[in-house]
Amino acid sequence: MKILLHMCCGPCSCFPVQRLRELGHELTGYFFNPNIHPYKEFRHRLETAKEFAEKVNLDLIVDDTYQLREFLTKALTAETVPNGRCQMCYTWRLRQAANFAKANGYDAFTASLFVSPYQQHEVMKKTAETIAIEEDIPFFYEDFRPGWQTGVDLSLQMELYRQPYCGCIFSEEERYSKAWRKKKKQEQKQLESLTS
Ligand code: SF4
Prior knowledge:
By secondary structure, the protein is an alpha/beta fold. It has 2 domains: 162 residues, Rossmann fold, CATH 3.40.50; 28 residues. It has a 4-stranded parallel beta sheet, with helices on both faces. Helix 1 links the parallel strand 1 and strand 2. Helix 1 packs across helix 6, helix 3 packs across helix 4 and helix 4 runs parallel beside helix 5. The radius of gyration is 17 Å and the shape is globular. It starts with a strand and ends with a helix. The structure holds iron/sulfur cluster. The site of iron/sulfur cluster (SF4) has 9 residues, from helix 4 and helix 7. Keywords: 4Fe-4S, Disulfide bond, Iron, Iron-sulfur, Metal-binding, Oxidoreductase, Queuosine biosynthesis, Redox-active center, tRNA processing. It is an enzyme of class 1 (oxidoreductase).
């Protein structure tokens, strides 16, 4: 099958590329990630994705438009509902991949995001399935998460840059801000006391 693989980054693509090739699929990588900020981080991840593609001899299509303002506008609107920001982020990227796959004669699309134990796997799966129906292009699903550690090992062997946070500036805050974590813990405690 000719599959377009949406690549969130180089390291997360290591296992899915290995696995899909083992299954006999013909792959092309697709980098479209308007969620990555700030600009230097975006360029670093993009260059790493290119480095990875070269090392494993993978054709890679790149959309290198840096869309900070568009992302923030969408994210701040989406944040008014629980999980809205990530839902928007998955939908934007996966729909773009699905549309590209459909327009360019691929049999299906999938995404390296499905390897990550840190993403909302079921939300992404449902999102991709809905997009597949709406855009009339099959979504190739496999839960790549059992290969997470293999992917980490491969990325280390290839000496790829491994990013410390998901992508957007919100996730960067969540990763580093003690104040944010404290606030979240307090909110969680309040929620638990209300439901107990
Ligand atoms: S945390 Fe990750 S998935 Fe969620 S909006 Fe930010 S970049 Fe996208």
